[in-house]
Amino acid sequence: MSSNVSRRRFLAGTAVAAGVAATTTTLGRGRAEAAPAATVDAIVVGGGLSGLAAAKSLVAAGASVIVLEARERAGGRVHNITSPRLGATLDAGAEFIGPTQNHIGALAREYRVPTLRTNNAGDSIFFNNGHAQRMSADLPLPLVPDLVEAGPALARAQADALAGFPVGEPWKHPNARYLDSITWAQYTGQIATSQTARELCQVAMSAALSARPDEVSALYFLNYIAASGDENNPGTLIRLLSTDGGAQEKLFDGGAALIPLRMAAELGTRIVYRAPVRTISWDRNLATVTSDAGTFRGRRVIVAMSPAISSQIDYRPGLPADRVGLSRGYHMGAVAKFAAIYPRPFWREKGLSGQVYGDGRPIDVTFESYAENRHILMGFISADAMRRLDHAPESQIVRECIANFVDYFGPEARSFLDYGIFKWDLEPWSRGGPVAVSTPGTLTRYGRALREPVGPIHWAGTETADYWTGYMDGAVRSGKRAAAEVLGVGR
Description:
Layout: H1 3-11, H2 17-21, E1 24-26, E2 32-34, E3 39-45, H3 49-60, E4 65-68, E5 80-82, E6 89-91, E7 96-97, H4 102-110, E8 115-117, E9 123-128, E10 131-136, H5 147-162, H6 176-179, H7 184-189, H8 195-209, H9 218-226, H10 237-241, E11 250-252, H11 258-267, E12 271-272, E13 277-282, E14 287-291, E15 294-304, E16 314-316, H12 321-329, E17 330-332, E18 335-342, H13 346-349, E19 352-358, E20 363-371, E21 374-382, H14 383-389, H15 394-409, E22 418-423, E23 436-438, H16 442-446, E24 457-460, H17 472-487
Parallel strand pairs: 3-4, 3-15, 4-12, 9-19, 13-16, 15-24
Antiparallel strand pairs: 1-2, 5-6, 7-11, 8-11, 9-10, 13-14, 14-15, 17-23, 18-21, 18-22, 19-20, 20-21
């Protein structure tokens, strides 16, 4: 049977998207109560980039779709905030885009969201044991004596990630059982034994995942490296960590969240906000999704959520043991973003790029950022440092972060005009970020359940992507893939 014929049969007799939209009644800001009679082709759970990409693909194919989003906004882990005094736009979540991230790039062009080059001129800083060492911003890692130890450990990781690595299916690696039995700390610690060398290896991972090296399976991070490319360009650690030519090469003028917000505007009333999903039940022909905004019925469901939190939903008749084990083996990284706005980029006057990597606390990684032509230093608070500050007063976080900026860039860092903070750990519909990571043993035992449909349920979210898992591009890829699965039913 041709794909066009099967698609027509799948769509036949269903309500078109506009008709579905007409069955809702607005309840306050962005919330709707569904008329129980409507049955749609697909219900998408989650209005982040992956869910929006899935819905966009389905609508383009003529399918009727409802998107249920727990928050009052679209975008998920892609989110803009405004600073309290100046009202400046700040990226609170995913921010950067780089080479081979063509799916998010295409959306940026479609929705006319321009990019800006991340400043990479001058020197960056490697901060270790209270000492700041300058290095060329062109280098992804500092040229320090201990790099002699760290280099071979990272080179081994790159070799393992290049050697025919089964991107997106790491459990198929010929050495998967061993690599998934140890942590990233154990993997690199076999070669890098000095404190500084271990710190370098840790930064290579924590800068991307906001997790400790003893919290993450070595196999997981090797797949993360291998995934930093596309079908024609193998993933490399250099691309993952670099600014120019790497994953941090550009940022979006006006904030990355402009992309999902414009996608959501296009989908219109197909999105129901303030609709956290509580139960998904199904029989042979129909799925019923119960949310705080009402009950919805569809032929298929796409759960566009991190596997670490998708288990919050009650599935009836229940999920297979492998899917349950998968969710239990994933946990979110711990992260917040802090940004300070300055009257001028004083760090540039010192020949600095605004980039820092190292063991500073609470901020261990920084970048220069932009917002409406304002000069910004942005820093990540990760892992244990974030957990310590989860419930700290905002004034304490500001004080500690500015003290870090002073350590890195000098006393001028005290003269900030405004700031912004966003704690992802305490965001109830993400529970951390930037990505869910797996503990040892999870991928080899349960990895096949990551994308395997369960009855009418399909799985999306950046964690389920093949390439650029953990990034905006991976989120878009995963949504498109899940939509293709739904549209392929009956072939």
